[in-house]
Design goal:
Number of helices of chain A: 11
Subunit structure (chains A, B, C, D, E, F): Homodimer.
CATH topology of chain A: Hypothetical protein af1432
Structural class of chain A: mainly alpha
Keywords (chains A, B, C, D, E, F): Hydrolase, Metal-binding
Shape of chain A: globular
Helix content of chain A: 55-70%
GO molecular function, one term (chains A, B, C, D, E, F): metal ion binding
Domain HD/PDEase (chains A, B, C, D, E, F): 26-138
Radius of gyration of chain A: 16 Å
Strand content of chain A: under 5%
Order of helices and strands of chain A: HHHHHHHHHHH
Number of domains of chain A: 1
Distance between the termini of chain A: 45 Å
Largest sheet of chain A: none
Number of strands of chain A: 0
Oligomer: homohexamer
Protein name (chains A, B, C, D, E, F): 5'-deoxynucleotidase
């Protein structure tokens, strides 16, 4: 799949199936999700740096921007499909074959092998959480997902205050 | 996933990823594909009955109409995902859990256990073939897929004249 | 109109005008409606069979799947257009000309000439009712339609408990 | 149907069914068609005035802008539906009930009772012709429609040079 | 930009960016807005005429129908872009070059040089106000815009009762 | 505009107006363009590194991913609007206010102050060129744009072989 136009258009026209399954009319595309992760990860890095961390902003943005590229080949199947495969390994295999120059950046995220990867993994879940909150506020039944994600995000050490900020900003009336 | 509105909307908003990967702007949804299979299977049954067969029209239409329902849960991932799973078994499992009253009809199609199922399986591939031909005629590179499907369809005994008819009608300039 | 690709795409791109006229952003297409009728009719048949009826599941699904095909030719005009024509006869004429092998199945539904046709006619109205309820829950003024359909559905003998089930499941806050 | 937001959104989300029936992916909406008629009618009036005519530009634009409003109520059904009704009278009835202040302008167009109405009626057909030419150039089978419209447009006295200009500009390779 | 098909399709596919920036899924296009202004302006003229005014209905409709044509060339940028340019002069320049036969009508609206232009300018703001109210009722944060527009509309002499009517009809729960 | 969901959705729903103005049905969104620039810039960096350069891959990806963020506020107006403003300064101002932590990365690209920024600026034009070629191959009149971009891309020192590769891959039949 070496046609980059097709890669981009596949990612920008593939809806994330979890929103469809909860009845949302206007399901976020994979590429819109990736951009949201990029913006969130960049903001988080900036906040942490303001607190004294030394996170490489470019690396955070880069990893976030490419973290879902394998879905151009794999599509975005339902949870039950992912659970039956070693999805991570499959994604990595696609990266090695189609985007070998990006495979290392992908690994940082997927296996959370360094701080950059951990921030992007956190931002990935957070992006889904705040989108779930917005859908809920508009009348769609996404609270199950919001709660499950919130719990996972609470498990990240040292990012609780970041989580609090975004929940306060985007999840009014959905999460406590 | 007991919300039938969400089942329908997921199927009607999930693009078939193979068209996206070949650059098509307006990728057929899973539900549009199912309807095309239904119409083709009905026409084929009518033709065969006119030639003296005794095919149950209602059964052909019914099986075709529901054959892809599992994709409401599974989504429509790329070929590489399907190839790594026992996709058929996964679909059957979804039918048993979500649509148990339709599971037998699904099995006819999936395992081609009777003539009705065989016709729907043929119509399923044929529907993809003629859509591939149309995309090709509009300028998209789908000929690889058209050729592969044509070969598979040739392997169906007793349906060669049916195949010829549809290729002549829809694949001008794409297949010989 | 012998091009089946055009038949399918017309049905899947024609919005049901009643939703547009009530301001809904994301009006259900004719083909999404047909799929919903198919799923509902299948569920209803399964329930009735579990209660001891002997309804042919394939026939119910088949009739539901094709019941609106004539709209590929006729489009989906407003209520006032339908009311001024013998719409049923016009539909039947289209079936006879374009889909003669399906014309008998259509008649079962349209004139409710047997139990199968009656169930599909019930499911057709029910599909519109539960979609109206969903639109209302999202903020659109479809309650007039919901109430009118509920009244019509109450008139079907022996299906009141079916109606109750679906209203309880999909119409919370809209119907009593 | 006094909700003007719904009137507008119905017109802008109702595809003209003739394009769907010829397989076009991106069928023109009724409101896009109305705008095209408005722009064409304005250009034609300007050309005729430059040749010495005295056509009221505002009237031409106004009639064109509203000429299809009745479709907010009636929808945009297929040709066979229109042919079985006194469609013109039905449209007029809708105007009288819903848009009484516009009913006279509508009549100018519909019955070509004056020069303004005649120009808009010409522009209405011309808009459909040049759209048909564009669809044909992109690969859709609309030439039957283009030819039929061209013939009708040739019957307008004194506008042959206008027709020639637009055919030369938009119909290269479609009409001679 | 002499291709009228491209002019129309640009206007009908360009979303008004203010709605996107407030999160609306289904942002009104420029051409849908123009049609709403046309319908409102026509209704307002009819009401004023019923009160004894002598407003030329065709002129009001014509000016409204074309008032945003320059956006086919300019697009629909954000407020900050418009504020840094003499946007009005830029629009006028486009009219003179692309649609010289409509430039005078545009000027009536843009500079409110006569009653017709003033009514269209009022209807333009009113159309945005009632759309903002509808978005708010569906859950989007457009109240800032609604309030700002209401204030501007209050400044139009002799139209307060018109404003009251539309606010009562469309802005329940949004404006007092 | 601190709502990141609205930022993302604005970018993913804003069509690039130049494609609309050339009649393309399916105009690329700003966010799809940004993703294409990111993928191209990454590939180019990988090629140059394989030739012995030492380009920071993460920086190239990061700058590309964010280079058009200001359009969430500014929209994507036509060329004539941009030409009348100091567009670059306006973009920079938005970055400083809305995304201060990304402003330096933006400057690298906008003013081509280092190799990373130069590669992204090249990839930005190249992304538009190959999209123009694809539109042309599908029948839209974008060759003027393709030629103008090709000329600008030729002016980049040391990247001629990169340009040749992409033109050979994507512009068959459009550029020599």
């Amino acid at each position: 799949m070496t046609d980059l136009l097709a890669v981009v258009d596949t990612l920008c026209k593939t809806p994330r199936v979890g929103w469809l399954q909860r009845g949302a009319w206007d399901a976020e595309s994979v590429c819109a999700h990736s951009l949201l992760v990029t913006l969130l990860a960049g903001e988080i890095a900036a906040r942490l740096n303001a607190e004294g961390a030394e996170i490489n902003m470019a690396e955070v943005l880069a990893v976030a921007a490419v973290h879902d590229l394998a879905e151009a080949v794999l599509g975005h199947p339902g949870r039950e499909v992912r659970d039956r495969l070693r999805w991570e390994e499959l994604e990595e295999e696609i990266f090695k074959r189609e985007f070998p120059h990006l495979a290392e950046l992908f690994r940082w995220y997927r296996y959370e092998t360094n701080t950059v990867g951990k921030i992007v993994a956190f931002a990935d879940k957070l992006a889904t959480l705040i989108r779930a909150c917005r859908y809920k506020q508009l009348g769609y039944p996404t609270d199950d997902l919001a709660k499950a994600l919130y719990k996972k995000l609470m498990a990240y050490d040292g990012l609780a205050h970041i989580l609090d900020y975004y929940v306060g900003r985007y999840c009014g009336g959905v999460l406590p």
